[in-house]
Amino acid sequence: MSVWKKLFTAIKGGATEAAEAVADSQALRILDQEIREAKNELRRSEESLTTILAKQKLSQQKVRDVEASIKEHEGYAIAALEQGNEDLAREVAEKIHEQEEELANEKSFLEQFDTSVVTVRKSIKGAKNNLRRMEQQVDTVKATESVQKAQTAVASRHLGAQSKMKTAAESLERIKSKQQQRQAELEAAQELASDESGDGLQAKLKAAGIGGAASSSTDDILARLKNK
Prior knowledge:
Elements: H1 3-82, H2 86-197, H3 199-208, H4 218-227
Helix pairs in contact: 1-2
């Protein structure tokens, strides 16, 4: 692979990593926005379900009313037949026929409402479960992200502290070395001053027990006094 091709590959890889870093940094914000939008859609679905439930109840009531009316008119038809009024009974029978058709249509509507309620409720339940799982995953990702950022900060501070401690220790050793050098220079200067004044030689002779009067002990003093 040529140098230029390697350079191009490196630049391309760096650009890809930069793009991924930008996408990752926006990932949580995008997820939060999608969750908010999903919640809005769920609210609209629940509002639609409420409307369907209301129409279902109205349809159920309509079915009961028509069934009651049919039963009522059947009683009228029977009464007309008992009176021998077949024409009236036929008229009532035609009314019953119309009501039975109306009842069949209303029952068809009611079945559709029942199916819609079951379908929408199932969809809402599934969406809520998915949303709950998504929120849990987002919370986990956010917590993990916070922990990792804290760990990174601690590690960075630790490395910085180690570097600072190393620098401080090196500075301390330099100070100690300079102090030892200065102390040696002071001692050497004192020795030179003693040699020049002669005090140094007397100190060395005294330390060797040569020359000079030794200090009298208590027994020497008593012996001298007795001789007097």
